[in-house]
Amino acid sequence: MKFFIDTANLDEIRSAAELGMLDGVTTNPSLIAKIVKDPSNFTRRDFFDHIAAICDLVDGPVSAEVTSLDAASMIKEGEELAAIHDNVTIKCPLTIDGLKAIRHLSEAGRATNATLVFSPSQAILAAKAGASFVSPFVGRLDDISAEGMALVEDIVDIYDNYGYMTEVIVASVRHPQHVVEAARIGADIATIPYSVIRQLAVHPLTESGLKKFMEDAAVMKK
Ligand code: E4P
Predict the structure, then answer these.
(1) Ligand 1 atom closest to residue 26's alpha carbon, by position in its atom list
(2) Rounded to whole angstroms, how far apart are CA atoms 219 and 222?
(3) Of 24, 68, 107, 114, whose CB is crowded by the most CB atoms within 10 A?
């Protein structure tokens, strides 16, 4: 399973990349807003420069989201985003207009990511539109007492039935168990917040075991 990091924070991306297992990045307007220090001075040029800076750090797909609602504007925006760097993936919401934009952009050879996906029917449409990636949001489903990972299971099954090439990105990941479940189900990718990437490595028995080993090693050094 590939690991993407779900952030626009350059320090987090750099740290995750140093681990040597970072395969891509996903951003969205809310993640971009988090890194903006002075919103009154943050221009579209600044946004493009930030996406370019992310692309310089990671050799893999970098999802940048469109912020318009009609298909024609999404396509125009998507082309602008794609011009930033070869690794940019154009993220479009799973709406009727988003599907039209995905279809158009994918036919033009652009990488696309269908985002805000909450049902198997939406995922079928994303694949039929030719999306490179589909992003089911598991955490937000869990938040409303639905089964986020059940959606991933459905999508993986359906895509396997038809050999759809669209890769499944498990998104809105909240904790390590989401990542483990994603791998168990056979999702292609999990996009993971930096804090959760670090949590994946943590186990109290590793910590206590290491403490004891260090104590015993110190005795041997005497
Ligand atoms: C990824 O593509 C999504 O934008 C992201 O995972 C959403 O996560 P959230 O539900 O924590 O905002």
Answers:
(1) 2
(2) 6
(3) 114
**Measured in angstroms, how far is the CA atom of residue 26 from the centroid of ligand 1?**
8
pLDDT digits (tens, 9 = 90+) for 28-66: 999 999 999 999 999 999 999 999 999 999 999 999 999
Ligand 1 pocket check for 112: Cβ under 6 Å: no
Counting Cα atoms < 13 Å in the Cβ hemisphere of 127 gives 21
pLDDT, tens digit, 9 for 90 and up, residues 105-120: 999 999 999 999 999 9
Instruction: Report CA(94)–ligand 1 centroid distance (Å).
Output: 14
Structural contact between residues 9 and 45, judged by C-beta atoms closer than 8 angstroms: no
Judge whether 91 counts as a catalytic residue: yes
> Would you say 182 and 150 are in contact if contact means Cβ atoms under 8 Å apart?
no
CB 178 within 8 A of CB 151: no
**Cα separation of 88 and 64, whole Å?**
7
Q: DSSP assignment, residue 40?
A: G
3-state secondary structure of 14: helix
Nearest CA to ligand 1 atom 9: 172
